[in-house]
Amino acid sequence: KEFWHRLRRRELGVFEPQSSIYISWLFVVSVAFGYNAVIIFLRCVFPYENDSNRHIFFIFDYLCDGIYIMDMIWFKMRLKFIMNGEWVEDTKLIRAYYVRRKRFISDVLSLLPLDLLYFTYGVDRPLLRLLRLNRLFKVPTFWEFFSRVDAITKFPYFIRIIHTLLYKMYLIHLSSCAYYLMSWYEGFGSTVWTYDNEGNAYLRCFYFAFRTATSIGGRMPKPSNDYERIYMIVSWLMGVFVFALLIGQIRDIVATATQNKTLYKDIMNKTVRYMRGLCLPHHVQKRVRLWLAYTWTQQKTFDENRILDLLPLKMRTDLALSIHYHTLSRVELFKDCERTLLRDLVLKFRSVLYLPGDYICKKGDIGHEMYIVNKGQVCVMDPNDSMKVLVTLSEGSVFGEISILGISGYNRRTADVRSVGYSYLFVLSKADLMETLKNYPEYKENLMQRVRRLVKCRETVDDDIKAMDEIDVECIVNPGQRRPITPRLVQTVIQVMSCSSADSHVSQRLLSRTSRSSRSSTGTPTAVPQTPTLLTPTGLIPTLTPTSTATRFLFPSIDSSGGQPVVDIGVDVVVEEPTHDNDCQPLDDSPVVGGDPFDDNQSVVDNQLINDIVYDL
């Protein structure tokens, strides 16, 4: 697809040797080479080509020749190569490099048009098909295809077996052609050993050659002359060596594929024998076997560091960065730090597997490591209740980063952390962190300051939560008591004015107004928000301007200490200090419950009534 896209744009460009487009093209060339390798001898020996189908063979012949030409011009001359450690992409240099190689000579020889002699000596002569044998000079491309596929495939052993099987089948193909040719030379059916020219010629000859190559002696027809004996000897030797080569490759493939499994079984057996020798408890042995089995299932190795040590430092660093960098950069302590520091830190991480129910750390333990959850889940347990889960940490979560920095009072674990299932954690030890920070002294001080700020912030949050827990909220409203039918402010004003005969007309007006609403004003009171100067947001009671003789009223408790009435309404209200006779009775000291000024159904007192009251006061 990429090739045709480049072709439509008329920009073929260059190709990498390990690119998918080039390997796909090598497969096409290998198919063309296989066609020539099989059909040339088939057409030369067996009588399958005739006037009715000769043109079909010619079409396939020249189609393969066209593939050879395209391989030389469009691919081999655009294939990048390495010079002085760098990829060369200049097409002129690539062409010059290709022309100087031996591959160019073999490609040219494979395209020599010797088959044009068909038309000189006659196309009906089968032996002239051997003029196309030069097409087999393309075999280096066939080898290159299997070599590159073997390097990139996930199943290299399977590719190697197929490669060997193709060699084996091709040799049997050549042997079947030789058997038919000898039978034709001696005469079909002239001896017991020769082919009797019945049935499908190629299939019968291929079957005979296959039996000869894969078995020695047996119930095979006995040769009757020296030519037949020579054929049998060559076929047996070819079969023995090629078949032995095939069996040997299969054995190596199976041994290599099962090498790690054999190692696993050996380690498991040694571990079990060692635990039994120590008479360890059964549950301990079971957990050890469980760890070995799960580790092998997931990683196919017990020592991944040994594999990584084979890589150069730069490649190990890049590999570790691709795994840990994104997670490490999200840790609060390492945000906005230098990338070089993170590159050094990721090499210090190691992977640890925890089984279901394993405790990663316990409360009170001294923290020597920080953890990053790679796979699985871990839960933080309540220190006071081991069965209560405070929080569950999933992939990418980090914990224990503060305790490894040696802050006084914060180097111990504050809770138990337990693995929920099979959990893989990346672990960074305190020693590795401090060793890395030696090369970054300026960041080490910055890191310590950041840790102190985080600790201080956590202490502040903890103090606030503790203070909130200790607050005893006093209930200022009794929800079970029904609300008075008349707002308490109006009742208070009536009691104040009833002490003076001069205000009797006002009190009478209040009684007449409020009595009409006494049957409808009921409900559950609520607390009244405090506002400095506004008595109610509904506008029923206006704001009063304070004077020099103003007194503060606080509601709902009323007393007369000092001769000054005090009304608690939950807001600050100022009115003129009233004067009353000595025979005036003080107001009732018993607590009352105020109404809700935000409830429109609480009162039907209008603005005019309140204005009259204020004016009279």
From TrEMBL:
Gene Ontology terms describing biological process: visual perception
Keyword field: cGMP, cGMP-binding, Ion channel, Ion transport, Ligand-gated ion channel, Membrane, Nucleotide-binding, Sensory transduction, Transmembrane, Transmembrane helix, Transport, Vision
Reactions catalysed: K(+)(in) = K(+)(out); Na(+)(in) = Na(+)(out)
GO cellular component: intracellular cyclic nucleotide activated cation channel complex; plasma membrane
Predominant localisation class: membrane
Membrane topology reported for the UniProt record: Multi-pass membrane protein
TM segment ranges: 21-43, 55-75, 230-250
PROSITE patterns in UniProt: CNMP_BINDING_1, CNMP_BINDING_2, CNMP_BINDING_3
GO molecular function: cGMP binding; intracellularly cAMP-activated cation channel activity; intracellularly cGMP-activated cation channel activity; protein-containing complex binding
Subcellular localization: Membrane
Chain residue ranges for the region called Disordered: 507-541
Entry-linked Pfam families: cNMP_binding, Ion_trans
InterPro entries: CNG_cation_channel, cNMP-bd_CS, cNMP-bd_dom, cNMP-bd_dom_sf, Ion_trans_dom, RmlC-like_jellyroll
Low complexity: compositionally biased ranges: 509-541
Domain annotation Cyclic nucleotide-binding: ranges: 333-454
Protein name in UniProt: Cyclic nucleotide-binding domain-containing protein
Organism of derivation: Oppiella nova
Taxonomic path: Eukaryota, Metazoa, Ecdysozoa, Arthropoda, Chelicerata
